[in-house]
From TrEMBL:
This is Pirin family protein. Fe cation binds at H58, H60, H103, E105. CDD domains: cupin_Yhhw_N (cd02910). It comes from the Bacteria. One of its GO terms (molecular function) is metal ion binding. Keywords: Iron, Metal-binding. It holds the Pfam family Pirin. Belongs to the pirin family. Binds 1 Fe cation per subunit. Its cofactor is Fe cation. SUPFAM superfamilies: RmlC-like cupins. Residues 156-236 form the Quercetin 2,3-dioxygenase C-terminal cupin domain.
């Protein structure tokens, strides 16, 4: 089993006042030649956005973009549907940029901060028609079991949102003292695991809040929970 450890404190950081950004991989003004991507996973940003602030209209193309609000409310508008749409904590949003789309992302609250993960995954099909999806996922359904929120449009997991890549994004809330055996979906796949909250171990490595580990070249691995923990797992092709 091959692993790479990314400690929370070693992430790229930017404080713009209205935006506190943490970058797991090279992004914007943060560059680390050893953190360009993990296979097809290109971006994992952990952003805190002040009330009423956000990102004005900007373009994307040929990227699968997934947004997961952890707390607060996001509002989104794009050129596919010129109306504001709310994405609340507990929901997941996907956008296949394909041939090109422009969008705006704002904190939908007048008085509360918004914390979200934004994930970019490189697609396996270029220049597809842009598409949008959004769905709420019940937290109780991931207590001590895997909840897949995003999967491949070519081999979809029931109940998940779909993107143009052989990828899978899952949530797992693991109780203290519990273990979980994750089966990787093929020899060319790897899994990037971030501890949202709590403490877990994988092999000899211990991961605390916002620490991450990339696991590849294995058929499976075991997660041990040292305390009640919330995990984000992103499985992607490594080549």
């Amino acid at each position: 089993m091959k692993t790479v450890i990314h400690k929370a404190a070693d992430r790229g950081q930017a404080n713009h006042g209205w935006l506190q950004a943490n970058h797991s991989f090279s992004f914007a003004n943060y560059f680390d030649k050893d953190k360009m991507s993990f296979g097809a996973l290109r971006v994992l940003n952990d952003d805190i956005i002040a009330a009423k602030m956000g990102f004005g209209t900007h373009p994307h193309d040929n990227m699968e973009i997934i947004t997961i609000p952890l707390s607060g409310s996001l509002k989104h508008r794009d050129t596919m549907k010129d109306a504001w749409q709310a994405i609340e904590a507990g929901e997941v949003q996907i956008m296949s940029a394909g041939t090109g789309v422009s969008h705006s992302e704002m904190n939908g609250s007048n008085d509360e901060h918004l914390n979200l993960f934004q994930i970019w995954i490189m697609p396996n099909k270029r220049n597809v028609e842009p598409r949008y999806g959004q769905k709420r996922f019940d937290a109780s359904a991931r207590r001590d079991k895997l909840q897949t929120v995003v999967s491949s449009i070519d081999s979809p997991v029931d109940g998940s949102l779909h993107i143009h890549q052989n990828a899978k994004i899952s949530r797992l809330d693991l109780s203290k003292g519990k273990t979980f055996d994750y089966t990787v979906g093929g020899k060319t796949q790897g899994v990037y695991i971030m501890t949202i909250h709590g403490t877990v171990s994988i092999g000899t490595d211990e991961l605390q809040q916002r620490d991450a580990i990339g696991v590849s070249e294995t058929d499976s691995f075991i997660i041990n929970s040292k305390e009640d923990s919330e995990l984000l797992l992103i499985e992607v092709p490594m080549h």
